[in-house]
Write a structure and sequence with these properties.
The protein is α/β, with parallel strands linked by helices. It is built from seven helices and 13 strands.
Length: about 280
């Protein structure tokens, strides 16, 4: 059964190059391949969630600069509904330049993210959560995310976070979170390792916690029970967006499975995406 998910956070325009390596200072490289797509953690998660048969809504700052036509065309082709927090904005959207290395599938990224495009909670439509089954927040629109997490809690809508890295405002958001899916780079204040991160999140009262570690096992704490989940071992072509895709797949599978099974199924999807160049060709 199709579910409705709201994904809150960053949207960028990603220019992705496949190259032998990242350039050295003053070096010019010719790319072996090239792609572009709408990007950002919440954006890629929304595309994945929709691809798996659901209804995706992306809540982000887009605006009306001509470059946003490329973003909107990509999202429309993947049937992601966009709710623009600042539709009259004339400034260009954040742009990411990304190099993926051919031999290792590693990526180097430079981007402005949402630093200059922060929205306010009063810009959110009051009925945005109507019919929503799942809310995912990536932390790039923190004020809006906190506002919606509190609303979702009162409506008994599950809240998940994409904890890619610690950002100001997470301390206010976390008490309203049901699923904290974090990367190995997510370090709350005073935390220096996985055990301390899990303890920090558990002390806040988050019942379901997972920390992804690339090709290494996912560590989780599920209602007080610790464990790990092995991920598929592959020869990655491109790891760009794998974490975002993991989050979108998790939001899909948690509607059908328990926490650990949903993590395992999401890892399968994310691993599949790493066998293809760019963030869309795996579909």
């Amino acid at each position: 059964m199709a579910r409705k998910g709201l994904f809150v956070g960053l949207v960028t325009l990603d220019f992705i190059y496949l190259a032998a390596d990242v350039p050295h200072p003053n070096q010019k490289l010719v790319a072996a391949d090239y792609s572009f797509a709408a990007g950002g953690p919440a954006t890629n998660a929304a595309v994945t969630f929709g691809y798996l048969g659901n209804h995706s809504i992306l809540l982000a700052v887009v605006g009306k600069h001509p470059m946003t036509n490329l973003i909107l065309a990509d999202l429309d082709s993947h049937e992601v509904a966009v709710r623009d927090l600042e539709p009259t904005r004339e400034s260009p959207p954040p742009v990411s330049s990304i190099i993926v290395t051919q031999e290792r599938g590693d990526r180097a990224v430079i981007s402005l993210n949402a630093t200059k495009t922060q929205a306010r909670p009063d810009q959110v439509a009051p009925d945005i959560l109507q019919g929503v089954d799942m809310l995912l927040i990536d932390g790039h629109q923190m004020a809006v995310g906190c506002h919606l997490a509190q609303m979702a809690k009162s409506y008994h809508i599950p809240v998940a976070i994409d904890g890619g890295s610690w950002k100001p405002g997470f301390a206010e958001l976390l008490p309203f979170v049901d699923y904290a899916i974090c990367s190995a780079n997510f370090y709350p204040p005073g935390c220096h390792n996985t055990e301390e991160v899990m303890a920090y999140l558990a002390d806040i009262g988050i019942p379901h916690i997972a920390i992804t570690q690339g090709e290494n096992p996912i560590q989780y704490l599920d209602a007080g029970s610790f464990g790990s989940i092995n991920v598929p071992q592959i020869n990655a072509i491109d790891t760009l967006g794998a974490g975002d895709i993991f989050h979108g797949a998790f939001c899909h599978y948690i509607g059908q499975h328990n926490f650990t099974d949903a993590l395992a199924a999401a890892a399968q999807i994310a691993s599949k995406s790493c066998l293809h160049f760019g963030t869309r060709s795996w579909m």
